[in-house]
């Protein structure tokens, strides 16, 4: 997994590089946008990590140029800006996600993996949270490497939740994916599937928690994270 | 050089101008007196005529009395000028003598005036001594009389009352009149000159300290006032610049802190797991929140509302709750969201989102783990965050809306900016922040907006 990192603060770039390399990424670091631009033309990358505040220009312009050139490589923007309106500007330019400084390594790594797992992304087809694994091709669920039988509805639900592990997935979007083809959905259908899946995961000793955010949706998270010191929600 | 008394109110412009004009009048008086005295000293005949005329006028005043009594009144026996002797003789038309007064051997020959038109004055001198004689024609009750006067005296002193009289009528009286006119002129000029100044002062006083971009209209009437106005405006400009610089500073500083803080967090992340590392992580998270709040505050203060912009409260609240749910779970809280029929409001969606975010973060920070935080939108234009913590005492509810105020200063988390950000954003939207105690226990903070019609949903 080759990652291009454009970051002008050398210490910050070092830390990001070391952290991501420890997670199995290969990084090419650039201290200016012009240098990054040359490499984009020559090499193929799986992910761009772009700091918006660069000495020789605005990272947003770089993102726009990449997208105009027809390059669809996922882009994660790192920014110190989060003024009112900055977020919309960042995503409109063609970035896939953005991360506001400061953040910690697990957050960055999780965001990078999420982008690489997108359709067309280079990361493998296996999602995992703690001892729970999900093979998106074989549609196979494993807990501590043991294959578990999970019915199709629960499988769909688990995949959606695992792709956004640590974040809330809204009820509406879950219902859309799970019941796209069926004409009638009872109001409690989703709740029933969720509670069945929750029981199943608990029975099989998965070290994950399936949280309910009342009125919003559901969130799958590592059991170790829950009740621990905050990880810091993305801003 | 001494200045006026430091304490007490300074003199009015009217008073100061009056004093200066009075000084000018005084100088004028002295010059005029000198001129009058000099003129008479140079021209003694004038004085002779004046003294004779003065005596004749005085005698003429008593003619009706004398016509009745046929005797000279006692008062008339004394001359005007002290130290002189004076005789007089009054003829009527036809040459008849009406009255006569001789002072010792000073007598006047009883001969009618050579011509009834004659007015004469004559002086004979022997050294310091002099004898004045003269005739004046007077009219009393439309009858003509001729008064002939003889005055014997010496030196200059007899003329002093005459000169004094002259000064009274020709110097002091006009000067009094002039002074009065000066005062009136001064009063009206000062008033009309100061009127634009007064209006300018009123305009300056009316400036709202929160509206640093306000400027004063220049008065077209006078260049001086226009200069004052432009000086005041230039000063306002400088104030505005420094206020903005101050506002920007907090934002800039917080912004610049982000990269070092990110470096710090990543460095802490590399440390081997230990209780110290956990503490550092908590501290770093607090700093992160503080920096974010400082930026929020700076953005909220600088925000300008587009009157056409609308915000969907339900969508905003749903997004904020979605974003903060992982934090809530991480801290062992549960969180819920309920839409009770919210409506759209005029406003800046992201700013409202920041306000709500701060409320929810506050609730998560200040309530014990295991409790629930409930976010409700509607009914109508309102957002509502209810927690199950200790609540906010009634007497401190205004205070907590101010910057850097915290209920419990011993609690390490938070800078006391959260509610101040909420308050700033709500004030900008013309809305209010209501802090209540929830039914049961805990705090309930409501953001109530002005209504702007039903929400349009896709």
Low-confidence stretches of chain A: 227-235
Silhouette of chain B: rod-shaped
Average pLDDT rating of chain B:
83
- State the CATH architecture of the largest domain in chain A: 3-Layer(aba) Sandwich
**So, CATH architecture of the largest domain in chain B?**
2-Layer Sandwich
What is the total domain count of chain B?
3
Oligomeric state of shown chains: heterodimer
Counting DSSP H or I runs of 4 or more residues, the number of helices of chain A is: 8
Secondary-structure-based class of chain B equals alpha+beta
- CATH homologous superfamily label of the largest domain in chain A: Response regulator
Task: Determine Rg of chain B (CA atoms, Å).
Answer: 49 Å
- Any idea of the CATH class of the largest domain in chain B? Alpha Beta
3D architecture notes:
The complex is a heterodimer of chains A (235) and B (458). Chain A is α/β, with parallel strands linked by helices. Chain A folds into two domains: 2-116, 3-Layer(aba) Sandwich (Rossmann fold); 126-222, Orthogonal Bundle (Arc Repressor Mutant, subunit A). Chain A contains eight helices and 14 strands. Chain A has helices spanning 10-22, 33-42, 59-68, 86-92, 105-116, 152-163, 171-178, 189-203, and strands spanning 2-6, 26-30, 47-51, 53-54, 57-58, 75-79, 97-100, 126-129, 132-135, 140-143, 146-148, 168-170, 208-213, 217-222. In chain A, helix 6 packs across helix 8 (189-203). By secondary structure, chain B is of the alpha+beta class. Chain B contains nine helices and twelve strands. Chain B has helices at 13-42, 44-61, 63-69, 160-205, 223-270, 275-302, 313-330, 349-366, 418-428; strands spanning 85-92, 97-101, 120-126, 129-140, 143-154, 310-312, 334-339, 344-346, 372-377, 382-386, 432-437, 443-448. Chain B has a five-stranded antiparallel sheet, covered by helices on one side. In chain B, strand 9 (372-377) and strand 10 form a beta hairpin. Chains A and B meet through helix 1, strand 13 and strand 14 of A and helix 5, helix 6, helix 7, strand 7 and helix 8 of B.
């Amino acid at each position: 997994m080759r990652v291009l990192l454009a970051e002008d603060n050398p210490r910050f770039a070092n830390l990001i590089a070391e952290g991501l390399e420890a997670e199995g990424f290969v990084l090419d670091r650039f201290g200016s946008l012009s240098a990054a631009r040359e490499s984009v033309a020559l090499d193929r990358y799986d992910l761009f990590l772009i700091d918006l505040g660069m000495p020789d220009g605005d990272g947003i312009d770089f993102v726009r140029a990449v997208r105009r050139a027809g390059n669809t490589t996922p882009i994660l923007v790192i920014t110190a800006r989060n003024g009112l309106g900055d977020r919309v500007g960042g995503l409109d330019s063609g970035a896939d996600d953005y991360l506001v400084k400061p953040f910690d390594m697990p957050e960055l790594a999780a965001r990078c993996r999420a982008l690489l797992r997108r359709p067309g992304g280079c990361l493998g087809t296996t999602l995992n949270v703690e001892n729970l694994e999900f093979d998106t091709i074989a549609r196979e669920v494993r807990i501590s490497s043991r294959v578990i039988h999970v019915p199709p509805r629960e499988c769909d639900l688990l995949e959606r939740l695992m792709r956004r592990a640590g974040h809330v997935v809204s009820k509406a979007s879950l219902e859309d994916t799970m019941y796209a083809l069926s004409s009638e959905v009872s109001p409690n259908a989703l709740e029933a599937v969720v509670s069945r899946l929750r029981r199943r995961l608990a029975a099989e000793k998965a070290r994950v928690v399936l949280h309910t955010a009342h009125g919003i949706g559901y969130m799958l998270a590592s059991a170790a994270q829950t009740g621990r010191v905050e990880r810091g929600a993305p801003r | 050089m001494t200045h006026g008394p430091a304490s007490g109110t300074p003199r009015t412009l009217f008073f100061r101008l009056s004093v200066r004009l009075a000084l000018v009048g005084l100088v004028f008086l002295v010059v005029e007196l000198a001129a009058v005295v000099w003129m008479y000293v140079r021209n003694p005949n004038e004085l002779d005529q004046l003294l004779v005329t003065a005596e004749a006028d005085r005698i003429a005043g008593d003619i009706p009395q004398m016509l009745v009594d046929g005797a000279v009144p006692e008062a008339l026996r004394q001359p005007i000028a002290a130290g002189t002797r004076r005789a007089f003789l009054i003829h009527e038309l036809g040459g008849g003598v009406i009255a006569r007064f001789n002072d010792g051997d000073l007598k006047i020959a009883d001969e009618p005036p050579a011509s009834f038109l004659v007015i004469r004055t004559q002086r004979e001198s022997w050294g310091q001594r002099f004898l004045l004689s003269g005739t004046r024609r007077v009219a009393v009750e439309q009858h003509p009389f001729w008064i002939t006067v003889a005055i014997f005296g010496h030196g200059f002193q007899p003329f002093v009352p005459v000169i004094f009289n002259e000064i009274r009528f020709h110097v002091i009286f006009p000067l009094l009149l002039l002074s009065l006119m000066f005062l009136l002129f001064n009063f009206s000029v000062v008033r009309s000159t100061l009127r634009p100044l007064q209006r300018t002062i009123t305009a300056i006083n009316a400036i709202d300290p929160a509206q640093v971009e306000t400027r004063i209209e220049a008065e077209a009437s006078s260049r001086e006032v226009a200069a004052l106005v432009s000086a005041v405006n230039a000063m306002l400009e400088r104030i505005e610049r420094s206020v903005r610089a101050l506002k920007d500073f907090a934002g800039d500083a917080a912004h610049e802190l982000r990269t070092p803080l990110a470096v710090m967090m990543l460095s802490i992340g590399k440390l081997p797991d230990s209780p110290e590392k956990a503490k550092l992580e908590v501290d770093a998270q607090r700093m992160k929140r503080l920096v974010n709040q400082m930026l929020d505050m700076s953005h909220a203060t600088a925000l300008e509302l587009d009157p056409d912009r609308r915000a969907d409260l339900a969508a905003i609240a749903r997004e904020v709750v979605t974003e903060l749910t992982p934090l809530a779970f991480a801290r062992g809280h549960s969180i819920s969201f309920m839409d009770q029929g919210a409506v759209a409001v005029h406003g800046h969606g992201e700013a409202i989102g920041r306000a709500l975010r701060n409320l929810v973060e506050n609730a998560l920070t200040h309530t014990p783990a295991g409790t629930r935080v409930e976010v409700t939108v509607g009914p109508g234009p309102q957002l509502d965050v209810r927690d199950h913590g200790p609540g906010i005492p009634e007497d401190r509810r205004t205070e907590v809306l101010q910057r850097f105020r915290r209920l419990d200063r011993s609690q390490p988390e938070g800078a006391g900016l959260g509610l101040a950000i909420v308050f700033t954003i709500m004030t900008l939207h013309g809305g209010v922040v209501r802090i209540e105690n929830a039914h049961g226990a805990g705090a309930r903070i409501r953001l109530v907006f002005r209504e702007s019609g039903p929400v349009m949903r896709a």
